[in-house]
Write a structure and sequence with these properties.
Elements (H helix, E strand, L loop, with lengths): L31 H17 L7 H16 L4 H25 L2
Helix pairs in contact: 1-3
């Protein structure tokens, strides 16, 4: 019998019998200074606004995805402080928004 040949087109499935697969690349983690600066700018935008400064899609993106991702970088007590300050402004803008819509 001839010796085993190398595969001409390797299978995308990893070897089931122990050949380790390379680890997945690390997910991007926002650097601390960038997280704090972005939170500071977001809070300043909210504080200065009389109504929500973003359309509903951007509001959802920032408040539901971006802010939690930035807060995850911070220490728990610092994150709680930022969350409280941002939530206060969001609640204020929601109250104003509620008065404007019929």
């Amino acid at each position: 019998m001839p010796a085993a040949q190398a595969e001409l087109f390797p299978s995308p499935q990893p070897d089931l019998f122990g050949t380790p697969t390379p680890p997945a690349p690390a997910a991007y983690v926002v650097p601390y200074p960038i997280a704090v600066n972005t939170l500071r700018r977001t809070l300043a935008d909210l504080t200065a606004a009389a109504v929500w400064p973003w359309d509903p899609d951007m509001k959802a993106a920032r408040m539901e995805r971006t802010v939690p991702r930035l807060l995850a970088v911070l220490a728990p007590d610092e994150a709680a402080d930022w969350r409280m300050r941002i939530d206060e402004q969001a609640a204020r803008l929601d109250r104003v928004d509620g008065r404007l819509t019929p």
